[in-house]
Design a protein that fits this description.
Shape of chain B: globular
Number of helices of chain A: 0
Largest sheet of chain A: 7 strands, mixed
Largest interface: A-B, 25 and 25 residues
Oligomer: heterodimer
Shape of chain A: globular
Strand content of chain B: over 45%
Structural class of chain A: mainly beta
Mean pLDDT of chain B: 96
Chain lengths: 107, 124
């Protein structure tokens, strides 16, 4: 199985800050990397698919980049509603696998 | 807007078979554009992809669960279901059903719209 490792596991930032979350795959997954946002008690919400494509309805402050094994999710200006856990997800090989999550808190 | 809703028992005894159903509204499971997925999340752990199915019957399973899992689709009811046999405490999780997108530019099908999830506990 492809192992997905995110860093950091948690972070605290202020409203308006630029926030970056990284995800590393244990082998190359080309650009088959997706990002989800999950708030407590809710289902995951797809933010970015195939590394850099913004899902419809997702604010443009979210962006993704990377290819191969190293990927980044960036929130350009953190908003209060962005407090959540973020997961990366590889859809390159079966079984699809997820990162352990990055919890983003607002200072 | 498509909506998905999981239903099933909240408590299952060890060694029994868990059956969950996902009812889809605002869309059709017979649409060839999508696959239909199950994903679970044990308490405090990461998400785990289980399987997906196309209305034509094409399936893909997580090899770690394949011997115990079956995913089925009922186009007449606009539902799909998950059966997990010989459950243990390790199968305790929130189970999500989801629609999955794919095609050109994708390798595998990616869950985009998810149900709210249903907690299943395995205990005697």
């Amino acid at each position: 199985d492809i192992q997905m490792t995110q860093s950091p596991s948690s972070l605290s930032a202020s409203v308006g800050d630029r926030v970056t979350i990284t995800c590393r795959a244990s082998q190359s997954i080309s650009t088959y990397l997706n990002w989800y946002q999950q708030k407590p008690g809710e289902a995951p919400n797809l933010l970015i698919f195939t590394a850099l494509n913004l899902q419809s309805g997702v604010p443009s402050r979210f962006s993704g980049s990377g290819s191969g094994t190293d990927f980044t999710l960036t929130i350009s200006s953190l908003q209060p509603e962005d407090s959540a856990t973020y997961y990366c997800h590889q859809s390159h090989s079966t079984p699809q696998t997820f990162g352990q999550g990055t919890k983003v808190e607002i200072k | 807007q498509v909506q998905l809703q999981e239903s099933g028992p909240g408590l299952v005894k060890p060694s029994e078979t868990l059956t969950l159903t996902c009812t889809v509204s605002g869309g059709s499971v017979s649409s060839g554009r999508y696959y239909w997925s199950w994903i679970r999340q044990p308490p405090g752990k990461r998400l785990e992809w289980i399987a997906y199915i196309h209305y034509t019957g094409t399936t893909n399973y997580n090899p770690s669960l394949k011997s115990r899992v079956a995913i089925l689709i009922d186009t007449s009811k606009n539902q799909f279901s998950l059966r997990l046999s010989s459950v243990t405490a390790a199968d305790t999780a929130v189970y999500y059903c989801a629609r999955a997108i794919g095609g050109a530019g994708f390798a595998l099908w990616v869950p985009d719209h998810w149900g709210q999830g249903t907690l299943v506990s395995v205990s005697s």
